[in-house]
Amino acid sequence: MTTHAGPYPLAPDASAENPEISADEQQFNDLIEADSRIEPRDWMPEDYRKSLVRQISQHAHSEIIGMQPESNWITRAPSLKRKAILMAKVQDEAGHGLYLYSAAQTLGATRDGMTEALIAGKARYSSIFNYPTPTWADMGSVGWLVDGAAICNQVPLCRASYGPYGRAMVRICKEESFHQRQGFEILLELMQGTEAQRHMAQDSVNRWYWPALMMFGPPDDDSPNSAQSMAWKIKRFSNDELRQRFVGMLVPQAAVLGITLPDPDLKWNDETQKYDLGEIDWTEFHEVLSGRGASNAQRLQRRRDAHAEGAWVREAAAAYARKQSERSEMVAS
Ligand SMILES: [Fe+2]
Ligand SMILES: [Fe+2]
């Protein structure tokens, strides 16, 4: 029974008098409560740190593996302008990977450790990058749908409670919106082209639409980590809320493109003020997630080869850094 005199009885675990909570933990809880930011120097619960390392490193791996389906088209882009744009986009994704690896490093993860886990096939990355990109229209669909879904997921992450993650996301989101626009523009040009080009664009959207919806993760009632992540203010909206937001953004854009979203059950529901969506095939999602997607093995092998081919660059950079520090030691002594 509480003897607290005020009109709002304090919850036992939120009370400053609770001997179970250390001053550090109280400060952490207060920062979260006040929508302030946790910085690397601050105390944080071990589970919070682990959960962020997992999320940020998976996100970094996704950016890096995500370069592959598009780099596949750089040499075959239909014009010099398209080639330059696609190269810039793929380079942006490399940059995103680097900001995110740096953010994970502020939590004590090592860059070598994260890379090792990825190339050993132990670390996860977004399954969307295990789908193949057989046609040029896929460069449109990847930008419009995959980067589009990434924006819906990532804009709320700009306010994530962990400072270095939130700040990395601000810059990443600016670039992702350029990516989405360039994808839309590729599809628009194809849709204004020949019958064969329109067909290629529609076929590509048919292949990417459902996997893009799956990027938001399982439905809310089957998403065990979400509640904790929302309590820590890392995540701000549920998977289903974000999926709804995404579809709400796509519908008017699909109308401008003249493209049909491949869901016959998709319609606006006046009562719920939401779109009703058709059934998502989660068996396919779990197949791809467990490594049986069309391109899983190929993506990992390419990443391993690239790491091996880059060994000389890492060695040269380390030798240069060593030389520089020896030189400055000589000057100092
Ligand atoms: Fe990115
Ligand atoms: Fe992107």
Explain briefly what this protein structure is.
The chain has helices at 23-33, 46-65, 68-71, 80-105, 111-119, 137-154, 163-191, 195-214, 226-231, 239-257, 282-292, 296-309, 311-332; strands at residues 267-269, 274-276. The protein has 333 residues and is mainly alpha-helical.
Spell out the CATH superfamily.
Answer: Ferritin, core subunit, four-helix bundle
Helical amount = 55-70%
Bound molecules: fe (ii) ion
Number of strands: 2
What value does the Rg take, in angstroms?
Answer: 23 Å
- Count the DSSP helices: 13
Text of the CATH class: Mainly Alpha
Shape: globular
Provide the β-strand percentage band. under 5%
* Poorly predicted runs: 1-16
Give the N-to-C terminal Cα separation: 69 Å
Question: In terms of quaternary structure, what is this?
Answer: single chain
Q: Helix and strand succession?
A: HHHHHHHHHHEEHHH
